[in-house]
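Q: I'm building a small set of examples for a reading group on sequence design. Run inverse folding on the following structure and report the sequence directly after it, with nothing in between.
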């Protein structure tokens, strides 16, 4: 917003200089309408992280359904009530073994709802889709996905999952 404001001041100064020159030769009038919309920031609160309790190397593929599984991650986005937004995230993420060499590929799935009800949430496909905050400025996400532990080395793995939310 500061950049817009500074640009506006610079524009007015240049315009006024032109007006002075214009008044010496011809008179003219100009109207400039400037408008801005200040948009509230979006906060994303992680309530629960994804939990793979008692997972063991060699277990094969583990799947946490974001709609039906209570071990899914749970997040709440807070923003402007009724505002439209777009969601973006990396569908696949490499997790790195903390104690040394080893990686796992995790494929994320997200379900979403404008009410706090996991079972009625909709699975979001990865195509870009516009969503809306509810009347209270909230939107709910559940995060699950798949990971194959068939050839995994024992140990702890970590990785970051980033969701980007932007107003439209």
């Amino acid at each position: 917003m500061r950049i817009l404001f500074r640009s506006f001041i610079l524009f007015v100064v240049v315009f006024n200089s032109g007006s002075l020159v214009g008044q010496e030769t011809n008179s003219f009038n100009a109207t400039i309408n400037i408008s801005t919309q200040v948009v509230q920031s979006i906060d994303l609160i992680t309530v629960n992280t994804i939990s793979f309790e008692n997972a063991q190397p060699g277990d094969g593929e583990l799947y946490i359904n974001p709609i039906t599984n209570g071990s899914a991650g749970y997040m709440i986005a807070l923003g402007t009530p009724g505002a439209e937004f777009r969601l973006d995230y990396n569908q696949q993420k490499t997790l790195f073994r903390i104690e040394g060499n080893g990686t796992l590929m995790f494929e994320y799935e997200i379900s979403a709802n404008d009410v706090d009800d996991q079972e009625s949430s909709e699975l979001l496909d990865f195509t870009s889709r516009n969503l809306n905050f509810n009347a209270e400025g909230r939107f709910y996400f559940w995060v699950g996905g798949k990971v194959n532990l068939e050839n995994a080395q024992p140990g702890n793995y970590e990785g970051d999952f980033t969701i980007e939310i932007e107003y439209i």
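The first helix runs from residue 2 to 25.
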